[in-house]
Amino acid sequence: FRPGAIITPPPVIELGNGTRLVDPNPQNVVVDAPKDVSVSYRRQYWVSVEGVERWEGWAYEGSAIRLNETVVGGVRYTPKTQYVEVRGPAAVKVNYTASLYREFRDALGLPNPTASVELCGRRFTADTAGRLYATVETDRECQPKFEAWPLSPYTLAILAAVTGATVAIAARRARK
Predict the structure, then answer these.
(1) Best label site of 6, 35, 174, 176, fewest CB within 10 Å?
(2) Which residues, at least 6 apart from 83, have a Cβ–Cβ distance to it below 8 Å?
(3) CA torsion 75→81→87→90, rounded to 10°?
(4) pLDDT tens string 39-76
(5) Are 137 and 80 within 8 A, CB to CB?
């Protein structure tokens, strides 16, 4: 190289198979005298993380890809592991805990214990107060499917008691 020349190492060296070298150090070398120059690089790997959310991209060797909790359609997804450590090119499938809490009321606002939900292929039913908590392990997003009677057994019992009382009162009046 001629004196005064600036040597710039390539910013990225593709090694193939999901590996590359980046961030050369030094980035530029000025030729001002005879020199031995050693350039160091940082290694990156192509990583794909699949589950409820998908992430893919280049990540530095030794780094950690943090997995976050997310809510989709009222279902909270919590990853079973907090992070994925980058040790080489990888395609990682992550499992999540899918959880759902909901209170069910009927048309009159009374608790509805007839409610149920199907979440990730499993069915869960409400308790006597109309509360439903569902939790299941999954590696994908699940769409909850809800079912409930429009009137709860409590409302039906009240309506039956009122109807029975009305019939009894009408029968007494009819006898007089």
Answers:
(1) 176
(2) 64, 65, 66, 67
(3) -40
(4) 999 999 999 999 898 899 999 999 999 999 999 999 99
(5) yes
